[in-house]
Every structure is written in C-alpha cells, then in structure tokens.
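Pasting as-is:
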Amino acid sequence: MAKVINRIKAVLAERNKTGKWLAEQVNRDPATVSKWCTNAVQPDLLMLSTIADVLNVSIRELLVDSKKDN
C-alpha cells in the first residue's frame, strides 16, 4: 500500500470536482491524476503549486501533516 502523502483526492471531493476535471485544468492525462489521487506517485512541487492554484487552496492543504501522528 502506498504511503499517503497528498490529500488531492480529499480536496477534490471537498470541492465537488473530479480527477478528470483536474486533469483538464492542469493539462495532464487523467491516469496521471488518478495516480496522484491514490498516492501511487506524487506530483512535483511546481505541479503541486499549480494544483493548489486551480483548487484555490494553499499547498499545505494538499499535503498530509507528517508530524500529526507523532
């Protein structure tokens, strides 16, 4: 199981948006966005910034707090 690093899927759900919609907004293949949403792979920092802009959230909202469980 992939380690949960990002919250892209959760933020999309909070905004009532789909992965397909995000893929269109950031000009990426829907399969790539799906991999981000399942944490199979991670977007680079520039793409993470673009995603945050498109969703109108801070980059921090897209990331899981690694210190929260400690």
